TrEMBL record:
GO biological process: chromatin organization; double-strand break repair via homologous recombination; replication fork processing
Keyword Lyase belongs to the record: no
MMS22-like C-terminal domain segment(s): 766-1132
Protein family membership: Belongs to the MMS22 family. MMS22L subfamily.
Native organism: Apis cerana cerana
Subcellular location: Chromosome; Nucleus
Gene Ontology cellular component terms for the protein in this record: nuclear replication fork
Highest taxon of the lineage: Eukaryota
Keywords: Chromatin regulator, Chromosome, DNA damage, DNA repair, Nucleus
Signal peptide residue numbers: none
Protein name per Swiss-Prot or TrEMBL: Protein MMS22-like
Coiled-coil boundaries: none
Domain named Protein MMS22-like N-terminal: residues: 141-556
Pfam families registered for this protein in UniProt: MMS22L_C (PF14911), MMS22L_N (PF14910)
């Protein structure tokens, strides 16, 4: 019989390595062997070798006494190496210490098996034969002797020098030849074997373990005490700064023994209502605390005993992350049991020994270790309880004037004076989100624990924990106490309340904070810095309100009163306070939501300030669900039993809705979109196979398919893409879905369009699968006229662009109006809800990405080629208008204009096919397009006073037809060249003039009719504005440049008709403007004369005639007109 079970050491414990050794006692099933031994042990016909004696297993027990002596001898050999002796060690090379451990463990395991083999027969044997009874008495005595031998050896653990605990671990495992290694590991193994032997003896050789429960519990407590003693010896040599990185296990075998004891003791507790594992630990820890307090013996005396107790509880809590099979599940393991009572007792002891008043020498160093350990236990492992937070709060509230947060290293070592309100809030938020504790003070770690606890447990529906914490914190402050705080105390106070505000009831916390903080408008040189900090804390409240989109109505007046006061002061503190307020004010007004009472921040301070201021783990679970789902579907096809049905029903009940909702979570689906899609497909398949079950849970194949394939609120298009690809892999599913969903093919087309646009270049193979499917559809095939067109569509990387352009060509071949109407309706159906998803991948951070540029290229191509198909005059909110307004003329997202300007000409030219003249709304769109994009497309050149007009803007005139150009010019003139009552022009009129100048100077790069219609449409508007504006208005010079550009244009020079049209327009305008504004009219004529004498000469006869009529009719200012005219004639003669 092979019974050699031993631990196999892997050296020191790696903090992040939770894998158990496969050759260790745990994974060899030792706990199961003890708790649930085999029903029958067949020792007959088997031999066993015990201490080099080969004998029948059934009768070897008769030599129990001899074997006890052998074992005792071997243990004594090991005991010689408790203390390192160089001479002794040099004589050990021929000794196989691992063999000693093996023969001892083999003997003990044989005893245990033998006891199991006679279970139930022990008492009956006594009544049968007195000889047997005598044998059993002997066995009982030898068992007790064995226990005494073991206990004597185990007690020697206290003789082992402390240093041995540190150097005995070895990565060589049982191949290690070091005597101390095997001596120490014999201690570890014997502790388990001792407990298992006692348990086996009492369970199977007596009436009940309950009769000997106290004795058994005492033995278990002894073992626990021994292990804690070892941990204490390890702890004593660890510097405080390294405690978090160290464990109480000096080797992996100790950790494995702790785990075995934990599972074994808790299993017995559940079965027999005996002590729990934590009960043993707590009794030992209480003994430590009491012993340390009474200062009796130095054996267990420790300087930081409370820290040690917390440290050991923390690491033993992590062991609860193992399941009964030895797999580490972490905080999700069902074995986890809290031990709050002991934690509370430890903290109370800590507080009573100077932790509350800061009398301990290393209180903050200790708290820097304790709090992170408590944070992990309280927030991640155990059910929430406020008591820990309350006890820790007792360590700080009396010491808030100590510079906790000022001890922080890293970027937050800025002085308080240099920190802004945003810095204060940013530090609070980063503290809550930062996993690293190294750079934080003890108070900062407490705030992180407090915030993390509240963030996890606070909700509007359950405020139990918050109410408890709120009462404990609020009760420690009053207005008077806060007013007496130093700068440090105020800083710590503000950090505390900002932490509460970020994680809980923001309005309530901010209200209390503002009420407690002193007024900031009255200060002097002695307390100015303190009031500046108070002001920053109050401004942080404003930022919080803005971040959480809370209405400012209740708090804004508190700020305005202060602002109106300090804005009138000229001292440095007032300026600093105003500067801080302006930064926050700017942040709030930059918010996209301006309906939160921001107007209440406006007051008389603005005027004064302007006057005086300076210039300056889901993936794992989903995989399990997928596997079980697939297995259920497979088994249900073979034999649909009730168990399978219940499993599927459970999946429907508890998973289906969650899978639906996962598509809205960008964090989860970003990494696990394939699992979501796979589960969605499985539910769809099952709904097709068993619609009644799906309906019972308010699902159907149709609703599932529509949700995952066509829902516009799916955050990650990859879910839709992968979902459809999996569907298309199974012909039967396609066939069944088409029966349920009449517009199945349309949904596929819509999904392909969506994937091609916003999922471009991510997984071309999957998009190609969708494309190959829709290519088989007759409606898609009809779009392409030739085989080459089909090949181009199939092989082009930008197949969506090919699809759009060929769709336009197809429409142009339709001759019957009704056919075009039906074609357009189908096209709009393909692109329905386009505006709801097309901008999803684009944010301010990704606006310059290749994907963003591609999306806008698709938008431009779609409008350029198919605007007439998207537009419907009878529908005010047709796809065309919605798409333009949301993507090109977006008000909510101004950053989109940087993309829109790249497609400007495509949008304008796309509108050419629409009947713009008959639809005022389209004209407004054109006006808005020019209004918003001219400043982006006309850019001043560096170091010159000229402007560069983008080709995208000029292309609108170069590629458009004459009628559309005329319409554009008319829209530009009527909207940008009107004079307001105060003789002010539109702010972008000068940009239109720059465009016209570029068109006129472009000579033959542009068609003649462009120049002609600029003359016919634009000239009168431009000159009329010239007449009305004030003398130094820049439009005057632009007008002269405009006339000069016309006169110097090659088409103008070559075409007499053009000149005559221009002369007539000038003449008509001048004639009407004489009476309106004599000065500006003659000023214009003088300017034209400097450009071209011919133009003025052509005008002279008509002007003379007009003057004569004025003189005959004795009109006012006729003499003045005559004088100005004579001066102009004299100049003409000099030319």
């Amino acid at each position: 019989m092979d019974l050699c079970f031993t631990f196999n050491c892997n050296g020191k414990v790696n903090f992040n390595d939770w894998e158990l050794d496969k050759n260790g006692l745990f994974l060899q099933g030792e706990i199961e062997n003890v708790l649930y031994p085999q029903e029958k042990y067949f020792l007959l016909d088997k031999n066993i070798q015990l201490f080099d004696c080969n004998m029948p297993a059934a009768t070897a027990f008769l030599d129990f006494k001899h074997f006890n002596k052998c074992m005792n001898m071997q243990l004594k050999i090991l005991s010689r190496h408790e203390i390192y002796d160089q001479v002794l060690s040099s004589k050990t090379h021929d000794i196989d210490f691992y063999y000693i451990r093996c023969i001892i463990s083999k003997f003990i395991l044989y005893v245990r098996i033998y006891l199991n083999s006679i279970k139930g027969n022990y008492l009956s044997l006594e009544t049968i034969n007195m000889d047997i009874k005598t044998i059993n008495v002997d066995i009982e005595e030898e068992l007790n002797s064995l226990f005494i031998i073991i206990k004597q050896f185990l007690e020697r653990i206290y003789n082992i020098p402390d240093a041995t605990f540190h150097y005995v671990p070895s990565k060589l495992g049982n191949q290690c030849t070091q005597p101390e290694y095997h001596m120490y590991h014999m201690h570890i193994e014997l502790r388990w074997f001792f407990i298992s032997l006692i348990y086996t003896k009492n369970i199977y050789c007596e009436y009940s373990l309950e009769n000997h429960l106290d004795e058994f519990e005492n033995i278990q407590a002894m073992i626990i005490n021994d292990l804690i003693y070892i941990s204490l010896k390890i702890f004593e040599t660890i510097p405080l700064t390294h405690v978090q990185q160290k464990t109480p296990y000096n080797c992996t075998c100790i950790r494995e023994l702790w785990l075995m004891l934990q599972i074994f003791i808790d299993s017995l507790s559940d079965r027999m209502k005996s002590k729990t594992f934590w009960k043993y630990i707590n009794e030992c820890i209480n003994g430590l605390l009491n012993r340390n307090a009474s200062n009796n013996t130095g054996q267990f005396l420790c300087k930081n005993i409370e820290l040690f107790c917390l440290w050991i509880i923390y690491h033993l809590s992590l062991l609860y992350g193992y399941n009964n099979d030895g797999i580490y599940l972490g905080s999700k393991c069902s074995r986890i049991r809290p031990n709050y009572e002991q934690l509370e007792k430890i903290l109370k002891t800590y507080i009573s020994k100077g932790g509350k008043d800061g009398e301990r020498d290393e209180i903050d160093e200790e708290l820097c270790i304790m709090i992170p350990l408590l944070n992990i236990i309280v927030t991640n492992w155990w059910q929430p309880r406020v008591s820990i937070i309350s006890l820790l709060w007792d360590c700080f509230h009396k010491r808030l004037d100590e510079p906790f947060l000022l001890q922080v290293s890293g970027p937050w070592t800025l002085s308080i004076e240099k920190k802004t309100s945003m810095d204060l809030l940013k530090q609070v938020k980063e503290r809550l989100n930062n996993i690293e504790y190294i750079k934080e003070s003890s108070y900062g770690m407490f705030l992180r624990l407090l915030g993390s606890f509240l963030r996890i447990n606070y909700s509007n529906n359950d405020t139990k924990y918050w109410n408890q914490i709120k009462g404990r914190i609020y009760s420690k402050f009053s207005k008077g106490k806060v007013q007496e705080f130093s700068i440090t105390g105020l800083y710590n106070f503000i950090s505390l309340f900002l932490t509460l505000a970020v994680t809980t009831d923001t309005i309530n916390v901010c209200s209390v904070m503002l009420d407690l903080l002193p007024l900031t408008k009255e200060y002097n040189n002695e307390n100015s810095k303190k009031h500046n900090l108070i002001w920053k804390g109050k401004l942080a409240v404003l930022i919080l309100y803005n971040d959480f989109r809370l209405n400012l109505t209740n708090i804004a007046p508190l700020y305005i009163d202060t602002i109106n006061t300090i804005c009138c002061r000229k001292d440095d503190i007032s300026r600093s306070m105003m500067n801080n307020f302006i930064d926050v004010f700017n942040t709030i007004l930059s918010s996209s939501n301006i309906q939160l009472g921001q107007h209440l921040l406006f007051s008389g301070w603005i005027d004064r300030y302007l006057l005086e201021c300076s210039n300056k783990m889901v993936g794992t679970l989903m995989k399990v669900l997928i596997n079980i789902f697939e297995q259920c579907i497979y088994l249900s096809k073979i034999s649909n039993t009730g168990d399978i049905g219940q499993l599927l029903d459970a999946l429907w009940c508890y998973v289906a809705c969650r899978v639906r909702q996962l598509v809205f979570d960008p964090v989860v689906n970003n990494e696990h979109y394939q699992y979501i899609s796979k589960l969605a497909v499985l539910f769809t398949m099952e709904a097709l196979r068993n619609p009644a079950t799906a309906k019972k849970h308010k699902h159907s194949a149709m609703s599932l398919f529509q949700h995952f394939a066509s829902s516009v609120i799916v955050k990650d298009i990859r879910i839709t893409r992968h979902y459809l690809v999996l569907i298309l892999e199974q012909e039967q599913i396609i066939h069944d879905l088409k029966k349920e969903i009449k517009n199945f093919d349309t949904i596929l087309i819509q999904a392909w369009i969506k994937c091609s646009i916003i999922d471009h270049d991510t997984n071309k193979d999957e998009i190609k699968i969708l494309q190959n499917y829709i290519l088989k559809l007759s409606d898609i095939q009809d779009i392409f006229e030739t085989y080459n067109d089909l090949q181009e569509f199939q092989n082009n990387d930008g197949s969506i662009l090919t699809f759009i352009m060929h769709s336009m060509k197809k429409r142009n071949t339709l001759k019957i109006e009704q056919e075009r109407i039906q074609y357009d309706m189908k096209w709009r159906l393909y692109f329905s809800h386009l505006e709801k998803w097309i901008l999803l991948p684009i944010t301010e951070e990704t606006k310059d990405s290749e994907l963003a540029l591609w999306i806008y290229r698709c938008i431009g191509t779609l409008i350029l080629c198919t605007s007439i198909m998207l537009y419907s005059k009878n529908q005010p909110n047709n796809i065309f208008k919605i798409l333009v307004n949301k993507t090109i003329l977006s008000v909510e997202h101004p950053f989109l204009k940087n993309l829109g300007k790249k497609t400007f000409s495509m949008i304008i030219l796309g509108m050419e096919t629409l009947n713009v003249r008959s639809d005022i709304s389209l004209q407004i769109i054109i006006r808005d397009l020019f209004d918003q994009y001219m400043p982006l497309l006309i850019i001043p050149t560096i170091n010159t006073n000229t402007f560069k007009v983008s080709d995208s803007l000029l292309k609108c005139f170069k590629d458009a037809k004459i009628d559309f150009i005329c319409l554009i010019l008319e829209i530009l003139m009527t909207n940008f060249f009107t004079i307001s009552n105060d003789n002010m022009m539109h702010k972008h009129s000068y940009l239109v003039m720059i465009i016209l100048q570029n068109l006129l100077k472009g000579e033959k790069n542009y068609a003649c009719y462009i120049v002609e219609h600029i003359i016919l449409i634009c000239t009168s508007y431009i000159i009329k504005c010239y007449i009305k504006v004030h003398d130094h208005h820049p439009h005057k010079q632009q007008t002269i440049d405009f006339i000069s550009s016309i006169i110097n244009n090659i088409y103008y020079k070559e075409d007499n008709t053009l000149r005559d049209k221009f002369h007539n327009i000038i003449s008509n305008i001048i004639e009407k403007s004489f009476i309106l504004n004599q000065h500006n009219t003659f000023e214009l004529l003088h300017s034209i004369l400097m450009i071209s004498t011919e133009v003025v000469q052509v005008l002279s006869s008509k002007l003379e005639h007009t003057l004569i009529n004025l003189e005959i009719n004795r009109r006012p200012n006729a003499a003045s007109f005559r004088y100005s005219w004579n001066q102009l004639q004299n100049l003409i003669k000099k030319q």
